Amino acid sequence: MKYLLVIGVLVALYQYFNSKCAPEYTSWHEIINKVEQEGATLSEVKSGATILAKQLCNDESFQSSGSQTLDSCHRSYQKRRKNCDEIVFSDAPETFLIKKEVSTLANRYLLCVGAV
To answer: Which pLDDT tens digit goes with each residue over 72-98?
Structure first.
């Protein structure tokens, strides 16, 4: 019984610290705000660029304005994602403090995966 209690406490502590150390972002604006306030890591910028690409691929009016369908955008994203991660982020710094640098990098990623 003691072992179950110890395991339960360890699992609870792990989940608590894991949630504090790795916040979940749901929008590109959260990443931009973080850059402006305290800076962001490369991992956070990648996460934000991925979120933005998926949001743009799900925006029917945006995709139709560029003569692309939602399905073609998603296919392009899935096909190019890994290659674009390497191309766009390979020589990027580990931390970002300037919004323009992050926006430029995200734009390169969006163009590469075919979301815009």
So the answer is: 999 999 999 999 999 999 999 999 999
